UniProtKB/TrEMBL annotation, chain A:
Keywords: Transferase. Its cofactor is pyridoxal 5'-phosphate. This is Serine palmitoyltransferase. GO terms for molecular function: pyridoxal phosphate binding; transferase activity. Residues 45-385 form the Aminotransferase class I/classII large domain. It comes from Nitrosomonas eutropha. The keyword Repressor does not apply. PANTHER family: CLASS II AMINOTRANSFERASE/8-AMINO-7-OXONONANOATE SYNTHASE, LD36009P.
TrEMBL record, chain B:
Residues 3-81 form the Carrier domain. Gene3D superfamilies: ACP-like. Transmembrane segments: none annotated. Pfam families: PP-binding. It comes from Nitrosomonas eutropha. The lineage of its organism: Bacteria, Pseudomonadati, Pseudomonadota, Betaproteobacteria, Nitrosomonadales. InterPro entries: ACP-like_sf (IPR036736), PP-bd_ACP (IPR009081). This is Acyl carrier protein.
């Protein structure tokens, strides 16, 4: 089988698994009206499948900052941070993020994916060990591959399993990077951070926490799980993304270890790519300020999340382990998940469809994500629709 | 457990793999995990976790890139068990 035939075979297998399901992936968004509504084809659709947790994508402050940056600095930097692409805005955002997390160092990357790729591959290398949660995001897996370290998975959020694996490593646990996430992207559950910190201290390992989905969502000022758990001085490295609560694109790593700065010289995903555009950096800086001051947005977000979670639970749906901005509905077959997804689309509600092997434990997911801009009426409409569709997925 | 042989590991794998595949085929040391048994990456990782517990070892994911057949997997597990 040659290279192209392999792709043909994969496409055929996908189509055979779910002949009508392919439309759910990469659906064309024809027009975006607000943080909660868009046009798909001829339909005005309620968006319940974005990562726009604080609903800031249309905020006046962010748009104004982006416009101003384009006018003053142009549309792109056309170069790497290591060459001509190291603008004032990049350095200012790094200072602001470091200050936000009360950390000494910060590096801004061009995407959140690259933040994990660049941090992990810069920290770990051949002979080291990376211990990752089984439900870790693909950027973490890919960063591990790029690092050349030995990569070992532990069972999702299972502290006993993690300890077992640390014990097996013996002295190598001191050269081990443990990687977890604040909120996991598929099931929406949170890592048991305090227990994991205890283990990493006992085994003298290093801990990296990815706050991609928890930044802006958890903690009094929105730092993430690290703030909610009061563990800021216990986590060695924190990565995050600008593409969710901050409504831009890009990523970062903060740390109190001065060695983080050295990654600028060894991390290929940092060096060999153009830096984020001035508009992206400017809107992210404005969004970060709104996020820090956004306790009322977080309050609304959690109110919405509890409303949807409790209503779907009462209806009888099988959900992810805990309420939060990601409400995952677990279905036992791709066909049922697609039936539910199609039913929601027929009622002008867009959610994410996740099929095996992308979903954990061989399940299929209809993944809803809530934001602070959703109104109580919108969430009620979603609840009613789910309730109406329940018989179609239990037959 | 420490005296387990490579053959015993291979036999054990053949038994366990039967539970992880929907394909009805006789499983031998030469059986290819992907082309013969259609074991996807997630199923393989779940199988590895079971095996790890059984032998009290950890199998690095990067070591799996050279694993194509049941025999390859048995060899890897044996090697890790010996050095643990």
């Amino acid at each position: 089988m040659n290279l192209l035939e392999k792709l043909d075979a994969a496409a055929a297998a996908r189509k055979a698994q779910l002949p009508e399901g392919l439309a759910a992936f990469g659906i064309p968004i024809d027009e975006s009206y607000s943080a909660t509504e868009a046009r798909i084809g001829e339909r005005r659709v309620l968006m319940l499948g974005t990562n726009n947790y604080l609903g800031l994508s249309f905020s006046a402050e962010c748009r104004e900052a982006a416009h101003k940056a384009i006018d003053q600095e142009g549309t792109g930097t056309t170069g790497s941070r290591m060459a001509n692409g190291n603008y004032y805005g990049h350095r200012a955002l790094e200072r602001e993020l470091a200050e936000f997390y009360h950390c000494r160092e910060c590096i801004v990357f061009t995407t959140g994916y690259q933040a994990n790729l660049g941090t992990i591959s810069g920290l770990a290398g051949a002979g080291d060990v990376v211990l990752i949660d089984g439900d870790a995001h693909a950027s973490i897996y890919d960063g591990c591959i790029l690092s050349g370290a030995d990569v070992i998975r532990f069972r999702h959020n299972d502290v006993i399993d993690l300890e077992k694996r640390l014990r097996r490593l013996g002295d190598r646990s001191r050269d081990t990077l443990i990687i977890i996430e604040g909120i996991y992207s598929m099931l929406g559950d949170q890592a048991p951070l305090a227990e994991i910190v205890k283990l990493k201290n006992v085994y003298q390992s290093t801990l990296l926490l990815d706050e991609a989905h928890s930044l802006g969502v958890l903690g009094e000022t929105g730092q993430g799980l690290v703030e909610k758990s009061r563990m800021i001085n216990e986590v060695d490295f924190i990565t995050g993304t600008f593409s969710k609560s901050l409504c831009g694109i890009g990523g970062f790593c903060v740390s109190n270890h001065p060695q983080l700065n050295q990654l600028r010289y060894v991390s290929h995903p940092y060096i060999f790519t153009a830096s984020p555009s001035p508009a992206t950096i400017a809107s992210t800086r404005a969004a970060l300020q709104l996020l820090r001051d956004g306790s009322s947005l977080r309050e609304q977000l959690w109110k919405n999340a509890y409303q949807l979670y409790s209503c779907l639970k009462e209806t009888g749906y099988c959900l992810g382990p805990e309420p939060g901005p990601i409400v995952a509905v677990l279905l036992d077959s791709p066909k049922r998940a697609l039936t539910l997804w199609n039913g929601l689309m027929a009622h002008d509600i867009y959610v994410n469809l996740v099929l095996p092997p992308a979903a954990p434990e061989g399940k299929s997911l209809v993944r809803c994500s809530i934001n602070a801009a959703h109104t109580t009426e919108q969430i009620s409409r979603v609840c009613e629709t789910f309730s109406k569709l329940y018989p179609t997925v239990t037959q | 457990m420490s005296k387990i042989t490579q053959t015993q590991i291979t036999e054990l794998l053949c038994q366990r793999l039967a539970c992880f595949t929907d394909v009805e085929a006789e499983i031998s040391p030469e059986t290819n995990l992907i082309t013969h048994l259609a074991i996807d990456s997630v199923k393989l990782l779940n199988l590895i976790m079971e095996i790890e517990d059984q032998f009290d070892i950890s199998v690095p994911l990067n070591a799996l890139v050279d694993v194509l057949t049941v025999q390859d997997l048995a060899n890897l597990i044996y090697k890790i068990k010996l050095s643990s």
